[in-house]
Amino acid sequence: MARYGFVVDLDRCIGCYNCQIACKDEHVGNDFSPIAKPQPTFGHFWMGIKEQERVLSSARIRVYYYPHMCNQCDDAPCLKAAQGGAVYKRDDGIVIIDPDKSAGQKQLVDACPYGAIFWNEQLNIPQKCTFCAHLLDQDWQLPRCVQTCPTDCLIFGDLDDPESRISKFLTTRQGEELYPQYQTKPRVTFAGLPKPVVSGIVIKGDNQEGGFEAKVELVGASGKKRELQADGFGEFYFNDVEPGKGQLTVNLAGYATVNLEVEVGADVTALEEIVLPKK
Ligand code: SF4
Ligand code: SF4
Fold first, then answer.
1. In this structure, what is the dihedral angle of CA atoms 109, 111, 112, 113, given to the nearest 10 degrees?
2. pTM for this structure?
3. Lining residues, ligand 1, CB within 6 Å
4. Is the CB of 22 under 6 A from ligand 2?
5. 71-124 pLDDT per residue, tens
Protein backbone atom coordinates (compact mmCIF):
# COMPACT_ATOMS: atom_id res chain seq x y z
CA MET A 1 0.00 0.00 0.00
CA ALA A 2 1.33 3.41 -0.97
CA ARG A 3 1.87 6.14 1.63
CA TYR A 4 1.11 9.31 -0.29
CA GLY A 5 2.81 12.64 0.27
CA PHE A 6 3.22 15.99 -1.43
CA VAL A 7 6.14 18.42 -1.57
CA VAL A 8 5.69 21.95 -2.87
CA ASP A 9 8.93 23.35 -4.32
CA LEU A 10 8.61 27.11 -3.80
CA ASP A 11 11.70 27.75 -5.91
CA ARG A 12 9.76 26.59 -8.97
CA CYS A 13 6.31 28.06 -8.38
CA ILE A 14 5.61 31.07 -10.65
CA GLY A 15 2.09 31.74 -9.36
CA CYS A 16 0.30 30.81 -12.59
CA TYR A 17 -2.75 29.38 -10.73
CA ASN A 18 -2.97 26.44 -13.17
CA CYS A 19 -3.19 24.03 -10.21
CA GLN A 20 -6.17 25.88 -8.77
CA ILE A 21 -7.93 25.94 -12.14
CA ALA A 22 -7.23 22.21 -12.63
CA CYS A 23 -8.75 21.46 -9.22
CA LYS A 24 -11.85 23.42 -10.20
CA ASP A 25 -11.99 21.69 -13.57
CA GLU A 26 -11.81 18.29 -11.91
CA HIS A 27 -14.24 18.86 -9.06
CA VAL A 28 -16.77 21.57 -9.97
CA GLY A 29 -19.93 19.93 -11.24
CA ASN A 30 -18.54 16.41 -10.77
CA ASP A 31 -19.81 14.07 -8.10
CA PHE A 32 -17.12 11.61 -6.97
CA SER A 33 -19.09 10.14 -4.08
CA PRO A 34 -18.22 8.52 -1.77
CA ILE A 35 -14.88 10.42 -1.99
CA ALA A 36 -16.28 13.90 -2.60
CA LYS A 37 -19.38 15.67 -3.83
CA PRO A 38 -19.03 18.56 -6.34
CA GLN A 39 -16.95 21.57 -5.36
CA PRO A 40 -18.80 24.89 -5.69
CA THR A 41 -17.60 27.23 -8.45
CA PHE A 42 -17.03 30.09 -6.03
CA GLY A 43 -15.78 30.42 -2.45
CA HIS A 44 -13.95 27.08 -2.24
CA PHE A 45 -10.21 26.78 -2.80
CA TRP A 46 -9.29 23.16 -2.20
CA MET A 47 -6.07 24.29 -3.86
CA GLY A 48 -5.25 27.79 -2.59
CA ILE A 49 -2.35 30.08 -3.53
CA LYS A 50 -0.96 32.43 -0.90
CA GLU A 51 1.27 35.27 -2.09
CA GLN A 52 4.03 36.89 0.00
CA GLU A 53 6.25 39.76 -1.08
CA ARG A 54 9.72 39.88 0.46
CA VAL A 55 12.03 42.89 0.13
CA LEU A 56 15.50 41.36 0.08
CA SER A 57 17.49 44.52 -0.60
CA SER A 58 16.99 47.99 -2.08
CA ALA A 59 17.03 46.46 -5.57
CA ARG A 60 15.69 42.97 -5.02
CA ILE A 61 12.13 41.90 -4.28
CA ARG A 62 10.94 38.32 -4.43
CA VAL A 63 7.34 37.19 -4.51
CA TYR A 64 6.75 33.78 -2.97
CA TYR A 65 3.73 31.75 -4.05
CA TYR A 66 2.54 29.04 -1.69
CA PRO A 67 0.21 26.49 -3.27
CA HIS A 68 -1.55 24.89 -0.31
CA MET A 69 -4.22 22.28 0.21
CA CYS A 70 -5.34 19.78 2.86
CA ASN A 71 -2.22 18.33 4.49
CA GLN A 72 -3.76 14.86 4.98
CA CYS A 73 -2.40 15.11 8.53
CA ASP A 74 -1.36 11.91 10.28
CA ASP A 75 -2.61 13.47 13.51
CA ALA A 76 -5.62 15.23 12.02
CA PRO A 77 -7.65 17.62 14.22
CA CYS A 78 -10.60 17.36 11.80
CA LEU A 79 -10.76 13.63 12.40
CA LYS A 80 -10.90 14.19 16.17
CA ALA A 81 -13.65 16.80 15.78
CA ALA A 82 -15.83 14.64 13.54
CA GLN A 83 -18.87 12.79 14.81
CA GLY A 84 -20.18 9.42 13.69
CA GLY A 85 -17.08 8.53 11.66
CA ALA A 86 -17.60 11.47 9.29
CA VAL A 87 -13.84 11.81 8.76
CA TYR A 88 -11.52 8.85 8.27
CA LYS A 89 -7.96 8.19 7.18
CA ARG A 90 -7.37 5.66 4.43
CA ASP A 91 -4.51 3.15 4.55
CA ASP A 92 -2.65 5.29 1.97
CA GLY A 93 -2.86 8.26 4.37
CA ILE A 94 -5.51 10.30 2.57
CA VAL A 95 -8.02 11.92 4.92
CA ILE A 96 -11.56 11.77 3.59
CA ILE A 97 -14.63 13.68 4.74
CA ASP A 98 -17.53 11.35 4.10
CA PRO A 99 -20.01 13.47 2.11
CA ASP A 100 -23.04 11.72 3.63
CA LYS A 101 -21.98 11.27 7.27
CA SER A 102 -20.61 14.83 7.51
CA ALA A 103 -23.92 16.54 6.71
CA GLY A 104 -24.47 19.47 9.09
CA GLN A 105 -21.03 19.12 10.76
CA LYS A 106 -19.95 22.71 10.38
CA GLN A 107 -17.56 22.38 13.34
CA LEU A 108 -15.11 20.64 10.98
CA VAL A 109 -14.41 23.95 9.23
CA ASP A 110 -13.02 25.43 12.45
CA ALA A 111 -11.26 22.21 13.48
CA CYS A 112 -8.67 22.49 10.70
CA PRO A 113 -5.92 24.90 11.83
CA TYR A 114 -4.82 25.42 8.22
CA GLY A 115 -8.21 26.64 6.96
CA ALA A 116 -8.29 23.77 4.48
CA ILE A 117 -11.97 22.85 5.03
CA PHE A 118 -14.74 24.82 3.29
CA TRP A 119 -18.43 24.84 4.00
CA ASN A 120 -20.76 23.97 1.13
CA GLU A 121 -23.92 25.92 1.96
CA GLN A 122 -25.98 24.36 -0.77
CA LEU A 123 -25.17 20.74 0.13
CA ASN A 124 -24.84 21.44 3.88
CA ILE A 125 -21.48 19.63 4.07
CA PRO A 126 -17.79 20.43 4.79
CA GLN A 127 -15.40 19.79 1.89
CA LYS A 128 -11.67 19.79 1.11
CA CYS A 129 -8.89 18.46 -1.12
CA THR A 130 -8.90 14.68 -1.43
CA PHE A 131 -5.48 14.28 -3.10
CA CYS A 132 -7.78 13.32 -5.99
CA ALA A 133 -8.26 9.90 -4.38
CA HIS A 134 -10.98 9.05 -6.95
CA LEU A 135 -8.27 9.19 -9.66
CA LEU A 136 -5.62 7.32 -7.66
CA ASP A 137 -8.20 4.57 -7.08
CA GLN A 138 -8.45 4.23 -10.87
CA ASP A 139 -4.66 3.79 -11.11
CA TRP A 140 -3.92 7.38 -12.10
CA GLN A 141 -0.39 8.23 -10.98
CA LEU A 142 -0.97 11.91 -10.20
CA PRO A 143 -3.73 14.25 -8.94
CA ARG A 144 -5.04 16.78 -11.46
CA CYS A 145 -3.22 19.79 -9.99
CA VAL A 146 0.13 17.99 -10.17
CA GLN A 147 -0.42 16.94 -13.78
CA THR A 148 -1.18 20.52 -14.76
CA CYS A 149 1.72 22.37 -13.09
CA PRO A 150 3.94 23.67 -15.95
CA THR A 151 7.00 24.09 -13.73
CA ASP A 152 6.81 20.75 -11.90
CA CYS A 153 6.72 22.49 -8.54
CA LEU A 154 4.16 20.05 -7.14
CA ILE A 155 5.81 16.73 -6.34
CA PHE A 156 3.52 13.87 -5.43
CA GLY A 157 4.01 10.18 -4.81
CA ASP A 158 4.57 7.24 -2.55
CA LEU A 159 6.86 8.18 0.34
CA ASP A 160 7.65 4.49 0.91
CA ASP A 161 8.83 3.87 -2.66
CA PRO A 162 12.51 4.85 -2.97
CA GLU A 163 12.04 5.09 -6.75
CA SER A 164 9.14 7.57 -6.57
CA ARG A 165 9.80 11.17 -7.62
CA ILE A 166 8.95 12.45 -4.16
CA SER A 167 11.37 10.05 -2.43
CA LYS A 168 14.16 10.95 -4.83
CA PHE A 169 13.41 14.65 -4.41
CA LEU A 170 13.60 14.32 -0.63
CA THR A 171 17.07 12.76 -0.82
CA THR A 172 18.38 16.07 -2.24
CA ARG A 173 16.08 18.69 -0.72
CA GLN A 174 14.49 19.07 2.67
CA GLY A 175 10.69 19.11 3.00
CA GLU A 176 9.70 21.50 5.80
CA GLU A 177 6.37 22.12 7.47
CA LEU A 178 4.81 25.51 6.80
CA TYR A 179 3.21 25.70 10.26
CA PRO A 180 5.16 23.30 12.54
CA GLN A 181 3.45 24.85 15.58
CA TYR A 182 0.22 22.97 14.76
CA GLN A 183 1.91 19.57 15.29
CA THR A 184 -0.49 17.63 13.06
CA LYS A 185 2.15 15.56 11.19
CA PRO A 186 1.22 16.88 7.75
CA ARG A 187 1.84 14.84 4.59
CA VAL A 188 2.40 18.07 2.65
CA THR A 189 5.78 19.76 3.11
CA PHE A 190 7.58 22.65 1.43
CA ALA A 191 11.02 23.05 -0.12
CA GLY A 192 12.57 26.49 -0.54
CA LEU A 193 10.84 28.23 2.37
CA PRO A 194 12.19 31.77 2.95
CA LYS A 195 15.36 31.79 5.05
CA PRO A 196 17.22 34.58 6.86
CA VAL A 197 19.01 36.90 4.46
CA VAL A 198 21.82 39.42 4.86
CA SER A 199 22.04 42.01 2.11
CA GLY A 200 23.77 45.37 1.59
CA ILE A 201 25.43 47.71 -0.83
CA VAL A 202 29.11 48.68 -1.06
CA ILE A 203 29.96 52.31 -1.89
CA LYS A 204 33.40 53.70 -2.76
CA GLY A 205 34.37 56.49 -0.33
CA ASP A 206 35.76 58.65 -3.14
CA ASN A 207 32.49 58.33 -5.11
CA GLN A 208 34.21 56.55 -8.00
CA GLU A 209 31.78 54.62 -10.17
CA GLY A 210 32.11 51.04 -11.42
CA GLY A 211 34.57 48.34 -10.47
CA PHE A 212 32.57 46.99 -7.54
CA GLU A 213 34.41 43.69 -7.47
CA ALA A 214 34.45 43.89 -3.68
CA LYS A 215 34.87 40.61 -1.83
CA VAL A 216 32.34 40.23 0.96
CA GLU A 217 32.93 37.64 3.66
CA LEU A 218 30.38 36.65 6.27
CA VAL A 219 31.28 34.59 9.32
CA GLY A 220 28.07 33.27 10.87
CA ALA A 221 27.17 32.85 14.53
CA SER A 222 28.66 29.33 14.61
CA GLY A 223 31.85 30.39 12.81
CA LYS A 224 30.83 29.15 9.36
CA LYS A 225 32.54 31.28 6.71
CA ARG A 226 30.97 32.31 3.37
CA GLU A 227 32.29 34.60 0.68
CA LEU A 228 30.89 36.25 -2.41
CA GLN A 229 31.56 39.11 -4.78
CA ALA A 230 29.35 42.20 -4.87
CA ASP A 231 27.58 42.71 -8.20
CA GLY A 232 28.18 45.55 -10.67
CA PHE A 233 26.16 47.94 -8.53
CA GLY A 234 27.96 47.01 -5.32
CA GLU A 235 25.02 44.94 -4.05
CA PHE A 236 25.50 41.65 -2.23
CA TYR A 237 23.10 39.08 -0.89
CA PHE A 238 23.63 36.07 1.40
CA ASN A 239 20.73 33.63 1.65
CA ASP A 240 20.01 31.06 4.36
CA VAL A 241 22.18 32.68 7.04
CA GLU A 242 22.13 31.41 10.60
CA PRO A 243 20.51 33.94 12.97
CA GLY A 244 22.70 35.47 15.68
CA LYS A 245 25.83 37.61 15.78
CA GLY A 246 27.94 37.49 12.60
CA GLN A 247 31.00 39.27 11.31
CA LEU A 248 31.07 40.91 7.87
CA THR A 249 34.30 41.92 6.11
CA VAL A 250 34.47 43.88 2.84
CA ASN A 251 37.66 44.06 0.78
CA LEU A 252 38.28 46.02 -2.41
CA ALA A 253 41.71 46.75 -3.94
CA GLY A 254 42.76 50.35 -3.32
CA TYR A 255 40.33 50.81 -0.42
CA ALA A 256 40.55 50.15 3.31
CA THR A 257 38.99 46.93 4.60
CA VAL A 258 35.72 47.40 6.48
CA ASN A 259 34.68 45.08 9.32
CA LEU A 260 31.16 45.09 10.69
CA GLU A 261 29.34 43.18 13.38
CA VAL A 262 25.98 42.00 12.06
CA GLU A 263 22.99 40.95 14.15
CA VAL A 264 21.27 38.49 11.83
CA GLY A 265 17.52 38.27 12.42
CA ALA A 266 14.99 35.63 11.38
CA ASP A 267 13.95 37.46 8.20
CA VAL A 268 15.91 40.02 6.13
CA THR A 269 18.85 41.90 7.64
CA ALA A 270 19.35 44.75 5.16
CA LEU A 271 22.53 46.69 5.97
CA GLU A 272 22.96 50.38 5.33
CA GLU A 273 25.37 51.48 2.62
CA ILE A 274 28.88 50.26 3.47
CA VAL A 275 31.32 53.02 2.57
CA LEU A 276 34.90 51.95 1.77
CA PRO A 277 37.47 54.67 2.56
CA LYS A 278 40.05 55.31 -0.21
CA LYS A 279 43.55 54.24 0.87
S1 SF4 B 1 -5.09 19.87 6.90
FE2 SF4 B 1 -6.99 20.23 8.02
S3 SF4 B 1 -8.53 19.14 6.86
FE4 SF4 B 1 -6.58 18.32 6.22
S5 SF4 B 1 -6.25 16.51 7.55
FE6 SF4 B 1 -5.23 18.27 8.51
S7 SF4 B 1 -6.77 19.05 9.91
FE8 SF4 B 1 -7.85 17.73 8.48
S1 SF4 C 1 -5.04 16.93 -5.19
FE2 SF4 C 1 -6.98 17.06 -6.37
S3 SF4 C 1 -8.46 17.81 -4.86
FE4 SF4 C 1 -6.41 18.25 -4.02
S5 SF4 C 1 -5.92 20.33 -4.71
FE6 SF4 C 1 -5.06 18.92 -6.23
S7 SF4 C 1 -6.68 18.75 -7.81
FE8 SF4 C 1 -7.65 19.61 -5.97
1. 120
2. 0.88
3. 70-73, 76-78, 95, 112, 114, 116-117, 128, 184
4. yes
5. 999 999 999 999 999 999 999 999 999 999 999 999 999 999 999 999 999 999
